[in-house]
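On to our target:
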Amino acid sequence: MSTPRANRANDDAIRKWNRIPREALEAMEPHGDFAKHHLVNPELLRLLGDVRGRRVLDAGCGHGYFSRMLAGRGADVTGVEPTDTMLTYAREKEAAEPRGITYVQGDLCRLPDLGGPFDAVVCSMVLAAVPDWKPAMRACVEALRPGGLFVFSLNHPAFEQLLSTWRAHGDYRLSRYLEEYEIPQPLASDFHRPLSAYLNALADLGCRLRALAEPGLDPSVAREAAPTTPGIESYVRLPNFLIVSAERP
């Protein structure tokens, strides 16, 4: 259960993410950023499987790009997002090109009534940005029907700062894996936690692990991106992202 202090920390993170410029959201159309397009999205979609006719919650949907991808594949999508900036953008996109997506403003740790259980919940690149994250994971799992699928992605805890350290040293270096600590970012912080923290939390919720994915970048894509992205070859050799699929009991 979240404490008042934890709630304040989460609220502060939401306020920081609310400052994201609209230009940054527009730049991520239609597939998210480079890494999401080439590494995260394909694995999320593979692990979710056929979503046609399925009720799917996009938990922490941001500006809604993945909600739109899911709806384009025939899912009945609800997107939950706490920030005014990203939620407004997502609703504007839905109004301009209706896909049947319902967008709801809400904190993942304190989900509103969403009209019954979901067949699948996807939570992409969100949990590591939530200071008090366990209630958010619990809410995602509890939003599922029995046997429903929970799929989440995050920066791989063992390789979070892959690109920056590769650029600096020509290889990857990590010295504080077992600790939990804050990673400052331009808008709001991420939080490092070891992989065991996430998997043990799933086990505590009674979930059955179905699959882990650690995608590497296609070498041909890396070669094309190399002139503008020094160090991108690191994405070919090491996994910067982790995608987890689990089933609610």
About this structure: Residues 34-48 form the longest helix (15 residues).
